[in-house]
Amino acid sequence: xxxxxxxxxxxxxxxxxxxxxxxxxxxxxxxxxxxxxxxxxxxxxxxxxxxxxxxxxxxxxxxxxxxxxxxxxxxxxxxxxxxxxxxxxxxxxxxxxxxxxxxxxxxxxxxxxxxxxxxxxxxxxxxxxxxxxxxxxxxxxxxxxxxxxxxxxxxxxxxxxxxxxxxxxxxxxxxxxxxxxxxxxxxxxxxxxxxxxxxxxxxxxxxxxxxxxxxxxxxxxxxxxxxxxxxxxxxxxxxxxxxxxxxxxxxxxxxxxxxxxxxxxxxxxxxxxxxxxxxxxxxxxxxxxxxxxxxxxx
Length: 298
Hints:
This protein folds into 2 domains: 198 residues, no CATH class; 96 residues, no CATH class. Helices cover 45% and strands 17% of the residues.
């Protein structure tokens, strides 16, 4: 169960009583059509609402969650590449609540710039786990990815069943030779990401996400010093994996691309400002931000 540890901990504090809901995702879908001709914009006039309804109304798993997972699909239609066929770039994001807090924490932030799909106005988007469809399978892949990343934050490696479903989609897609579904020499690849997620070598990165969120953020209100230490331990755990990983590792990159600003904000009132030096060394891509926040402390 996604909230097994979460519910157990809260019950011990006698402060939590879940309200069950049906579908899992509460997804905001926005589509930008500005780059394509007016005639094609007309053909896509229902696309945004149909994607939103598909993602939000399908039952992706069997659990009744206490609240739906907030997520975002920002779709930028780039060009028309054939009859009823389009290329797009997509930002995918998700967040989850922090226990006893007033803010949400970003869980997933990634940018997919290689989606090509076929959309015919009036043709429904249908879910089929046993056949590949360049529109539905893309949405399915990211729905399962969102769920997997979210579940991992509540219980260690608890997102595995959803990640397995995402891997099954990639296996179907590989035979098509479609963009984004193959191994890439550089940049982002759906195949590479899911292979890293399912590789036991990188399981500590997923464990770190659990430690960061559940034993870190969710404990800030009740045991602040311990929560800080758990977050630091989680980041150092990722660093241990990073030392022997390919520099192009996407799972590690996504973690820091998602969390770097939150990490910087969290440690503004930490006892030792030099912790930012550690963060900059572990996550050099965002060193500028860590340096900026360290200067605020002095």
